[in-house]
Amino acid sequence: MCCGKNKYSANIRVYLIPFLILYTIKIYIRWELEILIEKKNALSLDEQDVLKDFRKEFFLPHDKMYMDGNSLGLLSKRAERTLLDSLEDWKTLGIDGWMNGNHPWFTLSEKIGEELSELIGALPDEVMAASSTTVNLHQLVSSFYKPEGKKTKILADELTFPSDIYALQSQLLIKGYNPEDHLIQVASSDGMTLSEEDIISQMTDEVALILLPSVLYRSGQLLDMKRLAKEAHARSIVIGFDLCHSIGAVPHRLSEWGVDFAFWCNYKYLNGGPGSVAGLYVNNRHFGKRPGLAGWFGSDKNTQFDMEHTFVPASSAGAYQIGTPHVLSTAPLIGSLEIFKEAGIERIRAKSLQLTRFLMELVQQELLEFGFVIGNPDEDSRRGGHVALQHKEAARICKSLKELGVIPDFRAPDVIRLAPAALYTSFADVYETVNVLKRIMQEKHYEKYENTREVIA
Ligand SMILES: *Cc1c(COP(=O)(O)O)cnc(C)c1O
């Protein structure tokens, strides 16, 4: 009797221990299998990818998964070549590079404008490569913000990029208005996305101009530009978009939608290089007007060198250029945009959606248990080119990712932006990224860092 209990626990040990061992092995095998299936899946998606050959054209950081193409796109061999061509022109031709170079500098901005026009669905002369993003924003708002009578306010949103808000505040101050009551910023209900309904409901008869992002830089939400332009025009309000996070990732139909103006940077998805010259679009119904900030490169090209003091604006978006083009910061775009033309923006969008969908599926399968939340909208029609993963430890998870070979982007307070670029990111990279994230969470690898951001994050 005394030994019954012992015998019983001995039995338990005999059965339980092998059972536990087998169960653990089974879980492990299943986990490995799932992961292996996903890896196979990634490899076969890469195999079928119609854009796969473009990856070879880029300088990819060695042994790293580059998931930051929406902050600074990578250098391509063609962009390197066209930059070196322009340097060679300078070296061998001096001032004659303006007219006789490989890519004559005098008409370079117009030429790039034509190439860019296909990416945003505009006419070739509605687009120009010029200045920087924020300078173009100042240029366009100073041209299109015409307060009159009751219509004196500017409508923007509370989630937009800070530079856009600073510029709008300056433009209001220049015209003598107080941004406190003249800049309306549509609120977000969840801190990540905006509702088109809310925006439209704020298009009152006091609003003179609307400026919105096409894709929100943090959450990756793609706004319905067509609908917003239609609603704005129905109320006689001028509307412009900041395309920084959509150009090169999403097709646009700006002319067809009748959008008044737009601007963007060319160093994100378009891979034009750090500080690359930016872009602007003006609908042709506005041609012939004097731009807010006139400069001699906005002149009609045939009369520019007459050196008269009467400004004759170019009868195209070229009027919105200001000074001498930044040739060496434009030249990489010649090569880069050749690639976009060959790949085609529709195919780029299709692959981009497939990459981000694959990423979201892997996150759902592997990472939700660790407290990640997908912060971007789920529908294809409402997302741009990146996935926004929210996590309260985001800042230090990003530091771990960098140490372990994945280059992400952190946006305060809690967003890890992952942007697989269709031209050079593979499905295997996406798979590997999720694998690394999972390891970081299982091993609590991030705990060795502080949860604060770096200077550039
Ligand atoms: C990157 C970005 C900018 C950058 O402006 P710069 O003048 O090129 O520094 C502006 N707006 C948005 C939405 C951006 O994402």
Would you kindly provide a written description of the structure presented here, covering whatever features stand out?
- The strands form three sheets. This protein has a seven-stranded mixed β-sheet, with helices on both faces. Strands 9-10-13-12 form a four-stranded antiparallel β-sheet, with helices on one face. It has a two-stranded parallel sheet with strand order 1-11.
- The model has no long low-confidence stretch (mean pLDDT 94).
- β5, α9 and β6 form a beta-alpha-beta unit.
- The chain contains 14 helices and 13 strands.
- It has helices at residues 4-48, 77-93, 97-100, 108-120, 133-144, 162-174, 179-182, 196-201, 225-234, 254-257, 331-343, 345-366, 394-403, 427-442; strands at residues 65-66, 127-129, 153-157, 183-186, 207-213, 238-242, 261-264, 279-282, 373-374, 387-390, 406-407, 409-411, 415-418.
- It folds into two domains: 38-67 and 345-448, Aspartate Aminotransferase, domain 1 (Alpha-Beta Complex), CATH 3.90.1150.10; 77-343, Aspartate Aminotransferase, domain 2 (3-Layer(aba) Sandwich).
- The chain has 457 residues and is of the alpha/beta class.
- Bound molecules: pyridoxal-5'-phosphate.
CATH superfamily of the largest domain: Type I PLP-dependent aspartate aminotransferase-like (Major domain)
| Weakly predicted, low-confidence segments | none
For the largest beta-sheet, the strand count, sense and barrel status come to: 7 strands, mixed
Structural class: alpha/beta
Mean pLDDT figure: 94
- Rg estimate, integer Å: 26 Å
**Distinct ligands:** pyridoxal-5'-phosphate
- In helices, the fraction of residues equals 40-55%
Multimeric state: single chain
Shape: globular
How much of the sequence lies in strands comes to: 5-15%
Proper CATH architecture of the largest domain: 3-Layer(aba) Sandwich
